């Protein structure tokens, strides 16, 4: 194992570029049932060097996830922004997977908060492989971002 690989400790945050900070916050604060941890405008000189956009300003919010981790919502204040396609099969597309204790309840809550389900019937039973007995569902949230809800298999083997 390389020395660089040995320095990785954990995931610090997940960044999501959004078209509207307000729309993204409306989803996350409603879905998680609590306000963002912090909102601000990021505009320090170092930031342009980090993201490759000189003199950039980004409206940002930090939303704490249960169990640890943070979602960083980023609304870049630049003129030429174009939305990415939300097609899951396209290279470069990523998704956020949240482990849940009740996939059906989390799915209903996400839909009630404005998420669009990929499988309209709700979570699907995983019928093979290392996650046999689990439940999973993909939903599109703000900005075409894909969120997966994953309920691990029950220890007693039931679904």
- What's the Cα radius of gyration? 18 Å
Low-confidence stretches: none
Task: Give the percentage of residues in beta strands.
Answer: 25-35%
> How many strands, what sense, and barrel or not for the largest sheet?
5 strands, mixed
N-end to C-end Cα span: 38 Å
Shape: globular
Structural class: alpha+beta
Helix content: 10-25%
- Let me know the number of strands: 9
Distinct helical segment count: 3
Average pLDDT confidence is 92
The string of secondary-structure elements, in order, is: EHEHEEEHEEEE
Give a verbal description of the structure.
The protein has 159 residues and is of the alpha+beta class. It is 18% helix and 28% strand. It is built from 3 helices and 9 strands. The strands form 2 sheets. Strands 5, 6, 7, 8 and 9 form a 5-stranded mixed sheet that branches. A hairpin with a 5-residue loop joins strand 8 and strand 9. It is globular. The protein starts with 13 loop residues before the first strand and ends in an 8-residue tail after the last strand. 17% of the residues are buried.
List keywords for this structure.
28% strand, 159 residues, 5-stranded mixed β-sheet, alpha+beta, 9 strands, single chain
